[in-house]
Amino acid sequence: MRRAGLGEGGSGGYVASGYSVYEEENEHLQEGLRAKVSALKSLSIDIGTEVKYQNKMLDDMDTDFDSTGGLLGATIGRVKRLSRGSQTKLLCYMLLFCFFVFFVLYWYIKLR
């Protein structure tokens, strides 16, 4: 007694060989999928590492900007205190000197 598709010869051999073709194709597709998943995994790990590095850099920049803001705030306070006095002539000379220094630096950088 033979069951349909399980006997030797006839259409049973065709069904069994067709099954193995599908199985081989599935294994091939499975290997391709496995390679894609491993590539995505390594890419996501690299992205995570880069995000951590960028966050650390942003935190460092935030700290630097905070310290620079404090320094500039103190300097502005001193300039305001200086401008309240009767030393406006000294303040004008100081501003002209700053403009001169910036102009010389700009000229020097542009010639490089």
Automatic annotation (TrEMBL):
<keyword id="KW-1133">Transmembrane helix</keyword>
<dbReference type="GO" id="GO:0005794">
    <property type="term" value="C:Golgi apparatus"/>
</dbReference>
<comment type="similarity">
    <text>Belongs to the BET1 family.</text>
</comment>
<keyword id="KW-0256">Endoplasmic reticulum</keyword>
<feature type="domain" description="T-SNARE coiled-coil homology">
    <location>
        <begin position="20"/>
        <end position="82"/>
    </location>
</feature>
<keyword id="KW-0931">ER-Golgi transport</keyword>
<keyword id="KW-0653">Protein transport</keyword>
<keyword id="KW-0333">Golgi apparatus</keyword>
<keyword id="KW-0813">Transport</keyword>
<dbReference type="GO" id="GO:0005789">
    <property type="term" value="C:endoplasmic reticulum membrane"/>
</dbReference>
<dbReference type="InterPro" id="IPR000727">
    <property type="entry name" value="T_SNARE_dom"/>
</dbReference>
<comment type="function">
    <text>Required for vesicular transport from the ER to the Golgi complex. Functions as a SNARE involved in the docking process of ER-derived vesicles with the cis-Golgi membrane.</text>
</comment>
<keyword id="KW-0472">Membrane</keyword>
<dbReference type="GO" id="GO:0015031">
    <property type="term" value="P:protein transport"/>
</dbReference>
<dbReference type="GO" id="GO:0016192">
    <property type="term" value="P:vesicle-mediated transport"/>
</dbReference>
<keyword id="KW-0812">Transmembrane</keyword>
<dbReference type="InterPro" id="IPR039899">
    <property type="entry name" value="BET1_SNARE"/>
</dbReference>
<feature type="transmembrane region" description="Helical">
    <location>
        <begin position="90"/>
        <end position="109"/>
    </location>
</feature>
<keyword id="KW-0597">Phosphoprotein</keyword>
<keyword id="KW-0175">Coiled coil</keyword>
<comment type="subunit">
    <text>Interacts with SNARE complex members GOSR2, SEC22B and STX5. Interacts with LMAN1/ERGIC53. Interacts with STX17.</text>
</comment>
<protein>
    <recommendedName>
        <fullName>BET1 homolog</fullName>
    </recommendedName>
</protein>
